């Protein structure tokens, strides 16, 4: 009885209650409360750092090791990867363009921590040197996200070339560890209301001391606007170019989009997405069963936009500066990170925190963003599923056209042979 009631409680109610309690406790101006909030917030930040790098590494390796037959997936795989990279890079580029245009970093949100970064920012060349670690443990011990990405991709390519029996063993090994890390992540999410209380309490303290919230509002505007443009302009345009009706697609995929929105997980919406794609949109079972699961893992348009915007916003608010070329590099990094996203609630949040932790940027502003991330995560999950379905529809259209061309070619060849005989 108690278990049933517990499952029916909406976690958003706890988030709202934690926010209200944080506002109230922040106004009390009690030093003891602030000390407790600082301790809890630091513990939560440590938990974020604990799981961030393993999520990035294991999500990429477990996905690659699960590819059983490269010959069978080569045709579809090339198409999926092509449109995944295209749409994800566009999403990150739109986010960067909006970030530069709106310029949310017009004031320092946590001005007293800016000094901590002065003189410690690595040079541009040293950033590239860090891509290749000197040993396997180094990128994890030094919070080197770029090194972890390089190691994960290098190991993934190596696993794909192994015999099937070896690849199966490695896939089971990495997938099991990945599942364990995701379980730990769910535990962290379960205690998130306590962390929200702590961050909101500290936020109210800073607000009473003259904290500027305008930058936070502009940051949220960039994130939401980038997602809306990607979902409402870019993806429908891609469908129109391929001769597919965006309205029909949206209607057909609406149940799956709803599931993704309310569960905040594109992975949780996968069964419904496959059903809608086959029954409502008319995507072939072969294409849907291959494309959608793959896209759920690697096609994260909204995640790329969030990672890029969040990393630039938080780090620049703490005094880090970037050249235009470095910002362009973050488009690529955000795309790679999004491809390795877990497809679970708060996956993008953990990835963004991993990048910032690797740069030695204080994560306090991430705590301020946290109360708003519930809505952002819901929107991003729905947009990711929408992007997955659009890629699947485009791939299905191209496969149908190629099959028709092949059939027509074979028919003409057969008729030509008959005419020559007669």
Automatic annotation (TrEMBL):
<protein>
    <submittedName>
        <fullName>Neutral amino acid (Glutamate) transporter</fullName>
    </submittedName>
</protein>
<dbReference type="InterPro" id="IPR001991">
    <property type="entry name" value="Na-dicarboxylate_symporter"/>
</dbReference>
<dbReference type="Pfam" id="PF00375">
    <property type="entry name" value="SDF"/>
</dbReference>
<feature type="transmembrane region" description="Helical">
    <location>
        <begin position="290"/>
        <end position="315"/>
    </location>
</feature>
<feature type="transmembrane region" description="Helical">
    <location>
        <begin position="327"/>
        <end position="344"/>
    </location>
</feature>
<feature type="transmembrane region" description="Helical">
    <location>
        <begin position="251"/>
        <end position="270"/>
    </location>
</feature>
<feature type="transmembrane region" description="Helical">
    <location>
        <begin position="12"/>
        <end position="28"/>
    </location>
</feature>
<keyword id="KW-0812">Transmembrane</keyword>
<comment type="similarity">
    <text>Belongs to the dicarboxylate/amino acid:cation symporter (DAACS) (TC 2.A.23) family.</text>
</comment>
<feature type="transmembrane region" description="Helical">
    <location>
        <begin position="216"/>
        <end position="239"/>
    </location>
</feature>
<dbReference type="InterPro" id="IPR036458">
    <property type="entry name" value="Na:dicarbo_symporter_sf"/>
</dbReference>
<dbReference type="GO" id="GO:0015293">
    <property type="term" value="F:symporter activity"/>
</dbReference>
<keyword id="KW-0813">Transport</keyword>
<feature type="transmembrane region" description="Helical">
    <location>
        <begin position="83"/>
        <end position="102"/>
    </location>
</feature>
<keyword id="KW-1133">Transmembrane helix</keyword>
<dbReference type="GO" id="GO:0015184">
    <property type="term" value="F:L-cystine transmembrane transporter activity"/>
</dbReference>
<feature type="transmembrane region" description="Helical">
    <location>
        <begin position="40"/>
        <end position="62"/>
    </location>
</feature>
<feature type="transmembrane region" description="Helical">
    <location>
        <begin position="176"/>
        <end position="204"/>
    </location>
</feature>
<feature type="transmembrane region" description="Helical">
    <location>
        <begin position="350"/>
        <end position="373"/>
    </location>
</feature>
<dbReference type="GO" id="GO:0005886">
    <property type="term" value="C:plasma membrane"/>
</dbReference>
<feature type="transmembrane region" description="Helical">
    <location>
        <begin position="145"/>
        <end position="164"/>
    </location>
</feature>
<keyword id="KW-0472">Membrane</keyword>
